[in-house]
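Running low. Any example?
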Amino acid sequence: MPVQHKIIIVGGGNAGLSVAARLLRKDSKLDVAVIEPSDKHYYQPAWTLVGSGIFDIRKTMRREGDVMPAGAQWIKDKVAAFLPEEHAIVFASGEKMYYEYLVVAPGIQLNWNDVKGLKESLGTNGVCSNYSYDTAPYTFESIRNFKGGRAIFHNPHTPVKCGGAPHKIMYMAADYFRRHGLLKKADIQYWSGGTRLFGVPEYEKTLLEVCRRADIHLHFQQQLVEIDGPGKRAKFTGMGEHQNEETWVDFDMIHVTPPQSAPDFVKQSPLANAAGWVDVDRFTLQHVKYPDIFSLGDAASLPTSKTGAAIRKQAPVLVENLLRHMRHQPLSARYNGYTSCPVVTGYGKLVLAEFDYDNHRVETFPFDQSRERWSMFLLKRYVLPWMYWARILTGKA
C-alpha cells in the first residue's frame, strides 16, 4: 500500500494543531501532515468578549501558517470522504492520500441555513451572533443601540461548541443594560432547545440567580425555525412536552446560536455513529471499529461539552495512546470527560465551571468556583488568550 504520510491529521484548529505539536515534541522526526483548507486560524472563545465590546476582534485571528507547528506539513485542501478500509482519504478533487494512522479533528459545522431567514438577516435589524468572526462585532452594536424592548437570546436544540456561549452573552447584555439604566425597560428572554439552563446543579444555581437578578424569562424545549428580520420576529416550535406548539415572538434584538453538527463529510462516512459524530471510545479516543483512527474535539462522539478546555485534556491522552498503538502496546491513557465553561455573568464576573463525564465538579482552584469572581474574569480576559496562542497550540500545555 503506497503510504504517503505516516500520520495524517484532518483539521487545523485547536484540536488538530495541539495534537500535531504534541506529537512532534515527542518525536521531531515523525511524518505528520495537517489537512486544513482555511488560511486563517481563530481564537473563538474570545468572541463572547468581542460581542460584549471588550475585546478586539482582530486579536482573535492569525494566519494558519503562523500557528502551524514546525515540522508538520500543511496540506491546504478539503477532505471529501474517508476510505478507512484502504487507509485513505479523498479530497474534493477526487485525489486520494494514504496514511498509516489518522487523527480526525475537523471541528463542528455551523448550519446557518437550518433556520429559515437567518443567514439573510444576520447583521441587520438587531439579528446578531457571536458564532462567526464577521458577525460577532455586530452583537455589541446591537446591545449598544438597544433602547428598551425585547432582547432574545437563543440556544439551539443541537450540541454546540461552548455550550455556555448562548447564555454568556445574555448575562453580559443584561449587565450592560443595567449599567446604562435600561434593565427595567428590557424584556430579556432565553429560548432554548434544552431542558435546563446548565447541567451541573451547583453552577446552575448561581446562573439561575443571575437570571433572577436581571428578571430573565426562560423558555425551554423550543426550536428556532425561522427569522423574519424586517418584521423583527422569530418563530419557535415546541419540543418534548411542548410539541406541536408554534410561537411567533417579536424582538428588538435577537442573538442566535446556529444549529450545529459534525461536518457533512464526517456524517456521511463509515467513521460516524448514528448521530453523525466520529465514533470513538470515550476513554481512549480510539475509533471503535478502525484501530488506526483516533478523534478528538468537537467532531468526536465524546459525551461532554465541546470546548477548548476539553481539547486541552483530550490531546495528551490521544497522543499517548496513538504512540502506544504505533508501538503495539496497550492503550493506557484515559480521558475522564473533563471540560470547562468559563461563564461570564457580567463585566468583571465569571463562574469557572469545570466538570467530567458524570457532571461531577473537577475544579482547578482551592475555592468554590460556583461563585461569581473577578479573578476568574481576569483569567478569561487576559490569561486564557495568551495561553492558547503561546502554550496550547504549541503543545506545551
